[in-house]
């Protein structure tokens, strides 16, 4: 794998175990539009800490406040209230020094499409004042790392979406950042391209790179994050590791049952299934969640719950037993799904 260790930085964090990022009561409020209206609170008093070497995630649907939080961390949007410390510095007075030690993968790729792949990294490295020889060496290493070495002399425009995303990640690493910020790193990619990006990010994690990312993909958060917060309407609903959140807020398994649209069986099944909640028997149901297209039945034994459902006279059109996920955690905490 390419060498991706960080270069010595000019400013040290105050203590080895001090958080690299710390937020207390962090707020972001946007003023009313020119047409009037009320101020909009995108981030409403959140607390979190990011420690060296971990992957920390913000999970939530669009509009939850994730990107606004990332823009404050990236020093491109001023905070409206509370406290934010990054690498031991205050972004209100030290934004330039902080930016020099960050790598940023924005939600939308901002590559120079008419330039060659290699040139995108060479030019970006000059923004950080790096010497040409260092940039060239680093570019070779990073293109190999993101599996684009064979496209180094190609122009960017004809590259696939996944390739462009990997190039954006390589570009963000050109200055050997201490913290890599990724805003929705795989949105819009097909499943195969997403897994390639995940593999590169996982390798960065193994090499000790500190990552902070936003996502609305539950599987992405489970794959990559050591710790995460679940956000909704600008607030933090819960915090912990993916596994601890699932254990705390959901059951071991989930039974999904579907019915013929318009048959009325959906409503009848809800009434019968509610009678199975908390019976204490094998297959006992912990709770139900009713969605427009299906009913979610939460139980530690999904197959036994399915047997209990059939035994109560419910006959679904289709059924599926799966393990609980962060999607179920979010649904339990907010009453809606991540894609709402």
UniProtKB/TrEMBL annotation:
The keyword Nucleotide-binding applies. Signal peptide: none annotated. One of its GO terms (molecular function) is ATP binding. It is found in: Cell membrane. Residues 21-258 form the ABC transporter domain. It is a peripheral membrane protein. It holds the Pfam family ABC_tran. Belongs to the ABC transporter superfamily. This is ATP-binding cassette domain-containing protein. It comes from Catenulispora yoronensis.
């Amino acid at each position: 794998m390419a060498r991706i260790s960080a270069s010595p930085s000019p400013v040290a964090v105050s203590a080895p175990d001090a958080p690299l990022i710390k937020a207390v009561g962090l707020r972001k409020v946007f003023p009313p539009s020119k047409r009037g209206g009320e101020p909009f609170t995108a981030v409403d008093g959140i607390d979190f800490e990011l420690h060296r070497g971990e992957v920390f995630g913000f999970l939530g649907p669009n509009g939850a406040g994730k990107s606004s939080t990332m823009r404050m961390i990236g020093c491109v949007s001023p905070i409206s209230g509370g406290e934010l410390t990054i690498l031991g510095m205050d972004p209100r007075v030290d934004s330039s020094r902080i930016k020099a030690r960050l790598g940023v993968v924005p939600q939308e790729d901002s590559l120079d499409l008419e330039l060659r792949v290699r040139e995108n990294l060479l030019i970006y490295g000059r923004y950080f004042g790096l010497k040409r020889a260092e940039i060239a060496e680093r570019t070779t290493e990073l293109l190999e790392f993101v599996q684009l070495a064979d496209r180094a002399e190609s122009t960017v425009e004809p590259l696939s979406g996944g390739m462009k995303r990997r190039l954006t990640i390589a570009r963000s690493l050109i200055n050997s950042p201490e913290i890599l910020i990724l805003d929705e790193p795989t949105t819009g990619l097909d499943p195969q391209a997403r897994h390639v990006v995940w593999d590169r990010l996982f390798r960065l994690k193994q090499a000790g790179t500190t990552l902070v990312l936003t996502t609305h993909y539950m599987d992405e958060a489970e794959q990559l994050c050591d710790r995460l917060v679940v956000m909704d309407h600008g607030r933090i609903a819960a915090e912990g590791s993916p596994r601890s959140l699932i254990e705390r807020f959901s059951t071991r398994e989930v039974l999904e049952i579907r019915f013929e649209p318009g048959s009325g069986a959906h409503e009848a099944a809800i009434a019968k299934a509610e009678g199975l909640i908390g019976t204490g028997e094998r297959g006992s149901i912990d709770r139900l969640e009713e969605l427009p297209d299906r009913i979610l039945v939460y139980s530690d034994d999904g197959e036994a719950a399915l047997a209990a459902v059939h035994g109560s006279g419910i006959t679904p059109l289709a059924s599926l037993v799966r393990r609980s996920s962060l999607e179920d955690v979010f649904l339990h905490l907010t009453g809606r799904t991540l894609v709402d």
